[in-house]
Specification:
three-stranded antiparallel β-sheet, 11 strands
């Protein structure tokens, strides 16, 4: 199945943040209701074909700020040799490097992030920080760099000026697609968010990534977001059933909706729709 276009139409919703009246949330319903799931260790070919077992960890992780660095550093300091395969070189030579923008990133060693345990390691392959979180029974977002646990959700900020001289902060939640990686994102050998192969999740993104979304926007805003997503899915299902006609509706009854109307492509993520079409 071919990757879906990056510029496919989408449905968006906006609402005032219940906890912060001075800012508005702009949420990508098409992405948040998609069936994307992470394929790491479950068929992910990796963003670098030469390092298929590294998933998207081949570039290392950029730490967003001093708080992010401090939080991750505290976890790294507690990792034992049975948890972190590259602990010796990580401690001896440092597990971070200064990036070209003056920030800090995790060091890349032998083709991938130094915190990535490779296949064959007794504790199993995968991020040592993620594995620590699972072992401790806590959310991985408490141990991993911000950029890692947020992926593939992209949060962006924009100050919006109104004609009357007032302004508000706009917080956008959308898909972290190839473009979000910068110009080099188009050169990745593979990337998951618009690939139908990765749209096989049991739950939509707004459910499967609930903890991450709450951390990004807060519990009150998430509650509104979740309601909008549920309503969006219900509308998409109703339109799909109406398009199929009475024979395709539950119990033979056409659900509420404009019978016979074409399903708008922006209601369902193209990769999710593509996967369903192929699977069906």
């Amino acid at each position: 199945m071919a990757a879906t276009p990056l510029d496919a139409a989408r449905a968006w919703a906006e609402f005032t943040d219940p906890a912060e009246p001075g800012q508005r949330l702009r949420v990508d319903l098409t992405w948040l209701t998609s069936r994307w799931r992470c394929l790491f260790l479950d068929g992910c070919p990796g963003i670098d074909a030469d390092e298929p077992d590294a998933g998207c960890c081949t570039l290392g992780a950029h730490l967003t700020d001093a708080d992010d660095l401090a939080r991750v550093s505290a976890v790294v300091a507690t990792l034992g040799p049975d948890e972190w395969e590259l602990r010796d070189p990580g401690l001896a030579e440092g597990w971070t490097v200064d990036d070209e923008d003056g920030g800090v990133a995790t060091r890349v060693l032998d083709g991938a992030c130094i915190l990535l345990n490779r296949p064959g390691f007794p504790a199993g392959p995968g991020c040592a920080l993620h594995q620590r979180a699972v072992a401790d029974g806590v959310a991985p977002l408490t141990t991993k760099p911000d950029v890692c646990w947020q992926l593939p959700v992209r949060r962006a900020y924009r100050e919006v000026d109104q004609p009357d001289g007032t302004s508000y902060l706009e917080v956008t939640l959308t898909e972290y697609d190839r473009r979000a990686w910068g110009p080099g994102g188009h050169d990745l050998d593979w990337y998951c968010t618009n690939e139908p192969a990765a749209h096989t999740g049991a739950d939509p993104v707004y459910v499967s990534l609930r903890a991450e979304l709450v951390a990004l926007v807060g519990a009150q805003a998430y509650a509104v977001l979740a309601r909008l997503c549920a309503d969006h899915l219900a509308a998409a299902d109703a339109l799909a059933a109406a398009r199929a006609g009475p024979a395709g509706a539950a119990g033979g009854a056409v659900p509420v909706g404009p019978a016979g109307r074409e399903l708008l492509p922006l209601l369902v993520h193209p990769a999710t729709a593509g996967r369903r079409t192929t699977a069906g």
